[in-house]
Amino acid sequence: MADKLVYSSKINKIRSFALILIFVGFAVMYGGILSRKIEWLMLTLFLLGVMFILLSCVVYFWIGMLSTKAVPIICPSCEKPTKMLGRVDACMHCKQPLTLDKDLEGFEFDERYNKRKFRNEAKATMKDDQQ
C-alpha cells in the first residue's frame, strides 16, 4: 500500500519551529530548577532557556512579517482562504499542493520548485520531453 505524501505550508512549518523553540526553552529552564544547588549551572540553563524563548519571538516576528507579503488565495479543494509563499506551497487547511506558476502545472509537486535552479532544470527537461 503506497502512502500518500502529506505536505505542509511553509508558514505552518516555521510557526511549528518557533513553538518547538518555546518548549525547548522551558525544558532547559526546568533543568535549571532541577540543578539549583549548582548556581553557575542553574544560571547558565536559565539564560540558555531565555535565549531559546527570545529566538522564538524573533522567528514569530519574522514569519509575521513574511506572512503579510504572502499571496492570499482560495484553495480549490477546501475553498478556504490560505496564503502562499513562493511558487509552490501547500494549503494551510487541507494540505493540497498549490502553485501560482502556470509553467509548473502538470509537474509533480516538489517544494524544490521554489529554487530557481531546480525549476529551470525541470522546465528544460519538460521541453526536451515535448520535442
UniProtKB/TrEMBL annotation:
Transmembrane among keywords: yes
Pfam families in the cross-refs: DUF2614
Source organism superkingdom: Bacteria
Database matches in InterPro entries: UPF0295
TM segment ranges: 14-34, 40-63
Official protein name in the record: UPF0295 protein
Keywords annotated in UniProt: Cell membrane, Membrane, Transmembrane, Transmembrane helix
